[in-house]
């Protein structure tokens, strides 16, 4: 009897369990739509004739692009121009391939960018060191390099007056080697002359243009001539040609000042500082602005106030008191107490 009652009770429990299960609503998850793939963002960079190995402005622009690849996930394309007649073709290639942003490195591409940007109004362009303000699809990265030129000029002028500096400093003569007599070069030079003369009015400044940005041998020969004429500091503003200037300083054991990037690694005992130009910063910032739909055409300025220009940490050759005076000059420029012009001083035009 007990066994029969147990079986009956078990049957009832099972029937109730089945009924409860039937009341539970079961749903099959709806198939999820495929997540749309992230749209590829392409940036093309066209170098000046100096190429990526100029250790200077082309190198820095590519550095900013590489940062965008790493941090923003952009797809990059780079083409090195072998001659000036390549500019238009290289810029057009990226525009035809529907790149989102095409970067032209250098003042010498102004005419090509002006022409190509008009042919491809839906493509955004960035040009470094040239002001193009009449194109809604062109951003011009402009640098107040007269400011950093001024600071390394102050440093050079003070060093020439400082006793006890090794390597025969004290001849009160410096050499300037420019690539071409164009605004991005002359802005540095104008600032340097003003800075050096502000602390050392009697300093002799020997300026020579090579006419090229891609001829290290010519740069070296030019600097050797200046050194033979008494220059114990040489400052180059000559792109790849300037690597030869640094070689000359190393060979003759005098001092050099680098340009655009910190070039101390090229000759650690000779390159005492470098006038810095944040083209990597500008390149990255403008790429990001396009990606964020915040692109602004026209001039975009970079100077001491936004770390767009500056100078590399000086080597131990430069006395602390000299560095302090240079830093003070930098602060006075930021505060508006020192006005640095980008006009070439009389006698150097």
Ends: how far apart?
Answer: 123 Å
- Global shape: globular
Strand order of the largest sheet: 2-1-3-4-5-11
| Class inferred from helices and paired strands | alpha/beta
Strand content: 15-25%
Q: Please report the number of helical segments.
A: 10
| Tally of individual domains | 2
Low-confidence stretches: 1-37
Architecture of the largest domain, according to CATH? 3-Layer(aba) Sandwich
Rg of Cα set? 31 Å
Quick check: average pLDDT?
A: 90
CATH homologous superfamily caption of the largest domain: Response regulator
CATH class category of the largest domain:
Alpha Beta
Using the coordinates shown, work out and report the CATH topology of the largest domain: Rossmann fold
Largest sheet: 6 strands, parallel
What does this entry look like structurally?
- Keywords: Cell membrane, Lipoprotein, Membrane, Signal.
- The chain has 10 helices and 12 strands.
- With 349 residues, it is an alpha/beta fold.
- The protein has 2 domains: 42-143 and 280-304, Response regulator (Rossmann fold), CATH 3.40.50; 145-276 and 319-334, Response regulator (Rossmann fold, 3-Layer(aba) Sandwich), CATH 3.40.50.2300.
- The strands form 2 sheets. A 6-stranded parallel sheet has the order 2-1-3-4-5-11, with helices on both faces. A 6-stranded mixed sheet has the order 7-6-8-9-10-12, with helices on both faces.
- α4 (110-119) links the parallel β3 (101-105) and β4.
- α2 (57-72) runs parallel beside α9, α5 runs parallel beside α6 (183-199) and α7 crosses α8 (242-252).
- The longest helix has 22 residues, at 2-23.
- It is globular, with a radius of gyration of 31 Å.
- The chain starts with a helix and ends in a 15-residue tail after the last helix.
- Residues 1-37 have low confidence and may be disordered.
